[in-house]
């Protein structure tokens, strides 16, 4: 009888261990939903490199204690993370990714929206949603100087000025030429490759992560896969084929082996049935010219996570 009871206790303990371990893995490792902080008590700071439209004043605001950076990836579909996302003090979104109709998975709040110059027309096409209903959102627009130049009134900048005339309560900032150069320099320092010479484009995710590291004390990233997620046997590794410049010895990319058999998800959660996320990433990573280096960027984000308070959720993965 004693032996039987011992075996039963051991079995129960094993089951509890497995269940608790599984629960710890699947739960977001950020603060619980419903515990959103009040605005940080720290003093207002000035952030150079972000110029307000149309007066050119720099960004001034307090730091955010906890930020949610929400990927536009199809990984978010069915995640039911909306409450956890909205529970963060500040929520950062990218380009024209909507919340309406997807609140259960991606949340409803938008503190900051980082937008490529190529996505500005998509915002302009739905002004009541992006500008009239979301006037508390701060917009950060990035793009090349010829599109964004304030003095020469680049085409994208002109469009932003017109938006401000229609919605004067909006807060729209553009990244200065100096800030754009800084972001290029960060890429080169991390990879050993000149962005322009290697035919690379930076993604909106790149600018969003740099902004988040400046504004946020803790960053919780939702829906962003790791650099090894989309790799499979026989596929060229990140950086292969897109530059003759040798990789930085400090940047270590994961080996070309897929982590596990993942189901296909759309590149954007709001564009179901269109581009496959992994196919998109691999196509751009291997392009010799005009390619977004999504996989390389994620390897860099992983490195940053070792030095900064950055947590990746759904899928969960650790900085290396």
Automatic annotation (TrEMBL):
Give a GO biological-process term: ganglioside biosynthetic process
Q: Which reaction does it catalyse?
A: a ganglioside GM1b (d18:1(4E)) + CMP-N-acetyl-beta-neuraminate = a ganglioside GD1alpha (d18:1(4E)) + CMP + H(+)
The entry's family comment says: Belongs to the glycosyltransferase 29 family.
Example of a GO cellular component annotation carried by this entry: Golgi membrane
Q: Does the keyword RNA-binding apply?
A: no
**Name listed for the protein in its UniProt record:** SIA7D sialyltransferase
UniProt gene name: St6galnac4
Main location per UniProt?
Golgi
Alphabetical list of Gene3D superfamilies matching this protein: Glycosyl transferase family 29
Question: What Pfam families does the entry give?
Answer: Glyco_transf_29 (PF00777)
Question: Which keywords has UniProt assigned to this entry?
Answer: Disulfide bond, Glycoprotein, Glycosyltransferase, Golgi apparatus, Lipid metabolism, Membrane, Sialic acid, Signal-anchor, Transferase, Transmembrane, Transmembrane helix
**Source species, domain of life:** Eukaryota
State the annotated membrane topology for this chain.
Answer: Single-pass type II membrane protein
Q: Where in the cell is it found?
A: Golgi apparatus membrane
Query: Which one of the record's GO molecular function terms can you name?
Result: alpha-N-acetylgalactosaminide alpha-2,6-sialyltransferase activity
Q: Which InterPro entries match?
A: Glyco_trans_29, GT29-like_sf
